[in-house]
TrEMBL record:
<protein>
    <submittedName>
        <fullName>Nucleotide-binding protein</fullName>
    </submittedName>
</protein>
<keyword id="KW-0175">Coiled coil</keyword>
<feature type="coiled-coil region">
    <location>
        <begin position="77"/>
        <end position="104"/>
    </location>
</feature>
Length: 145
């Protein structure tokens, strides 16, 4: 009888170990997926800003107003590109932490598509993130709209 308890205990430990590993893999994969979704949203916003620049330049070719509008759009693009770089850095750090924990990015990967994509708003002045549109940055007071 004692031998059966020992076997069950070993089996239980193995199951717990596998569950913990799977939980870690899932957690790291979800975190990576969230960051990549944020990057995708920001890159789409950059694309829209670049299209708006083209429209501004085309409509106001000889106007000083056009230059200031383009400069404003360029500042927003720069802020968003910095945000993308920071998110990519977070992904690298997450990958390093997952490797240190013995969890490789593979099994679950990016096949988890249950994460809702939300639009991110970023202050062009101080790079503060917001989930919703703001007229003014709550951090530095910069006019965002």
């Amino acid at each position: 009888m004692g031998e059966k308890k020992g076997t069950f205990k070993k089996w239980k430990e193995k199951v717990n170990e596998k569950v913990t590993t799977l939980s870690n893999k899932t957690s790291f994969a979800v975190d990576r997926s969230k960051l990549r979704k944020q990057i995708g949203v920001i890159e789409e916003e950059i694309k829209v800003l670049k299209q708006e620049i083209g429209e501004i330049v085309n409509l106001n070719r000889n106007s000083l107003f056009s230059v200031s509008m383009v400069n404003y759009q360029l500042m927003q693009i720069e802020a968003k590109e910095k945000a993308v770089a920071l998110l990519e850095q977070e992904i690298e750090e997450l990958n390093d932490r997952s490797k240190a924990a013995g969890v490789e990015e593979e099994l679950i990967g990016e096949s988890i598509d249950i994460i809702e994509v939300t639009q991110t708003f970023i202050c062009a002045n101080c790079n503060e993130f917001y989930d919703e549109s703001k007229n003014f940055c709550e951090e530095c007071g910069y006019k965002m709209i």
